[in-house]
Amino acid sequence: MTQPIFLIGARGCGKTTVGEALTRACGFAFIDTDQALQAKAQRSIAEIVEDEGWSAFRARETATLQSVTQPATVIATGGGIILSPINCDFMRNNGVVIYLNAPVSVLAERLEAFPEEAQRPTLTGKPISEEVHEVLAQRDALYRQTAHHVVDASGSPEQVVREILTALQVARAS
Ligand SMILES: Nc1ncnc2c1ncn2[C@@H]1O[C@H](COP(=O)(O)OP(=O)(O)OP(=O)(O)O)[C@@H](O)[C@H]1O
Ligand SMILES: O=C(O)C1=C[C@@H](O)[C@@H](O)[C@H](O)C1
Ligand SMILES: [Mg+2]
Hints:
The structure is a single chain. By secondary structure, the protein is α/β, with parallel strands linked by helices. It has one domain: 3-Layer(aba) Sandwich (Rossmann fold). Helices cover 57% and strands 13% of the residues. It contains eight helices and five strands, in the order βαβαααβαβααβα. It is globular. The chain starts with a strand and ends with a helix. The model has no long low-confidence stretch (mean pLDDT 96).
């Protein structure tokens, strides 16, 4: 299989961390849309949002997703990639989409330990755990609708990689 693998899910579910580990396990290349977008703009996401607003960031995100997609690549996306139906259709039609699903408590704990505000400017103005709860409630159904596979992302990165590989093997065998 050389179809691109798209990792989707909430901030802190581990798309970047698990994506890097997954590439080592399956020999694919790795691309992260947040990192590619910031490198091209030569600005952080917080700076882009402050200068241009969220809708301009979202337009850049769609362009980035399309430009980085290629075979044999694991693509870690931004947490809000599913807000655009264009992105959802694009990922479903051009690869395998995996939702890294983790409970609010796990997400909030990780984000509180490593907030990385330059990449994750606030979405609601609320404290992290409140924001994670509110945003996941709005987006969980979108992640599920877009994904071909839902994987438990609350374990270690190595465990999550194993779960992804199992989901892909089961899908290939059936
Ligand atoms: N499976 C895991 N076990 C323990 N810690 C993890 C795991 N996955 C990620 N982390 C930690 O949680 C933090 C957030 O992870 P990461 O940046 O990979 O999330 P993300 O899904 O890419 O978030 P974003 O949507 O903001 O890009 C990092 O500090 C990372 O080390
Ligand atoms: O959840 C979100 O809407 C975001 C998540 C991050 O990965 C970045 O893409 C950006 O901070 C927006
Ligand atoms: Mg990330």
